[in-house]
Design a protein that fits this description.
3-stranded antiparallel sheet, 9-stranded antiparallel sheet, 15 strands, alpha+beta
Length: about 400
């Protein structure tokens, strides 16, 4: 981290994250504030030696071993031929080693999603990017490629930081507003790719790409390994669907309690020649019920927070050890903790929080840990919640050594 003299006025609660107003090696001398203003969702940024001295988070053998697991999302992408004769194939994991091509065979790559869920070293690579909202973070993907290996020219609908950790990869990028996909392929390959810029990245180099920028990366000079920090951009329809599902599960109408629940009534209904037609009054009755749910204070925010903090389907937790006295706590690498003005969210669940309790829990969400001194001052309600999370394996005791 390259900081100017003087104390930062915007020090991040997570000490591993660059101060928001100070130049950072990670961002090529830009501060996080400048990066978000000038490049985020706007323009690519190439940073040479963003991670000086970087080491791969795992070996090639360990990567292949992970790809064999049913609990890991993995893919094998292979290209045969070039130009008009190119043939692409896609195999989804688990990938037994015998299914992989020979190491000396060119033009193939193995990709493993969610490496941060399995390796502390991968989780550590995500931490410096926590000046971006946690709700946007997806995961860290790692790709190993033989000479010439890649997934072809394509574009993503999300932001991505491409970190070279071993070997070299050539990246070509372009805006491609008129991109066309090649038909009848198992992978999405841009047919009319026209690159505007080209670089070769070496270990420690990083390339940021906003959504929609077409890019093509292949290994040059031998095998290579690249880590991709991806930030999800949920579709509007996805957010609407998921929040409505959670709102429906939480529907509670006080009028439905007791011996006389609120039911549809139509004493004014006339005799009809159209018995198949749904009465407009019944439509309005249903609309009133939906409006009551949406207008319930905090209901939409609670449903959204529960969805955004929900772990991926492949994530599971093991029961943890009890929280000892005189200990701090640290979030499990798989845990997602968020908050809004009235709630805290952890792994798909929500709790109301206010005053000092809310401040402590928000600090845990922002820093992903609390020291023992802070825990000694929390209320019995917060302590009980932390003890439950510890039992669930969502957080772990943090000793004085961390």
């Amino acid at each position: 981290m390259n900081q100017s003299s003087g104390l930062s006025l915007r020090q991040h609660p997570d000490a591993a994250v660059p101060p928001l107003d100070q130049p950072a090696v990670l961002l090529g001398g830009l501060s996080p504030t400048e990066f978000m203003q000038q490049h985020w969702q706007r323009a690519p940024l190439l940073v040479r030696q963003a991670f000086p001295g970087v080491q791969p988070p795992l070996t090639r053998a360990d990567l292949f071993k992970l790809a064999e697991s049913e609990e890991v999302e993995s893919r094998l992408v292979t290209r045969r031929g070039r130009g008009a004769d190119e043939v692409w194939s896609l195999d989804r994991g688990p990938l037994a080693r015998r299914r992989l091509p020979a190491l000396k065979q060119p033009d193939w790559t193995v990709l493993v999603q969610g490496l941060d869920l399995h390796l502390p070293s991968a989780q550590a690579m995500l931490t410096p990017f926590r000046f971006i909202p946690q709700a946007r973070l997806d995961d860290l993907m790692v790709s190993w490629a033989a000479e010439g290996g890649g997934v072809g020219p394509h574009f993503d609908s999300y932001d991505v930081f491409l970190i070279q950790v071993q070997g070299q990869r050539r990246w070509r990028i372009g805006r491609m507003a008129d991109a066309r996909l090649r038909p009848n392929l198992p992978v999405k390959i841009i047919e009319n790719f026209q690159p505007e810029q080209e670089w070769v990245l070496s270990p420690g180099d990083m390339l940021y790409l906003p959504p929609g920028w077409a890019h093509d990366g292949d290994a040059v000079g031998g095998e290579c390994m690249t880590c991709s920090v991806g930030f999800r951009s949920p579709h509007r329809s996805e957010l609407a669907r998921e929040t409505l599902l959670r709102l429906a599960d939480a529907v509670e109408d006080e009028g439905d309690e007791g011996v006389r629940p609120v039911v549809y009534a139509d004493p004014g209904q006339a005799a009809t020649m159209e018995p198949g037609r749904i009465p407009p009054a019944l439509v309005q009755f249903a609309a009133d019920g939906l409006r009551r749910v949406l207008e319930e204070p905090g209901a939409l925010e609670r449903a959204l927070g529960e969805y955004m903090s929900e772990p991926k389907p492949t994530v599971s937790f093991e029961f943890g050890d009890p929280l000892p006295a005189n200990s701090g706590v640290v979030l499990d690498a798989r845990s997602c903790m968020l908050y809004d003005d009235h709630h805290v969210f952890m792994n798909g669940d929500s709790w109301h929080a206010a005053d000092e309790d809310a401040q402590v829990l928000r600090r845990l969400a922002d820093a992903r840990q609390l020291d023992a001194a802070t825990l000694a001052t929390v209320s019995s309600a917060v302590l009980g919640l932390l003890e439950q999370w510890c039992d669930d394996g969502w957080i772990h005791p943090l000793t004085s050594r961390g």
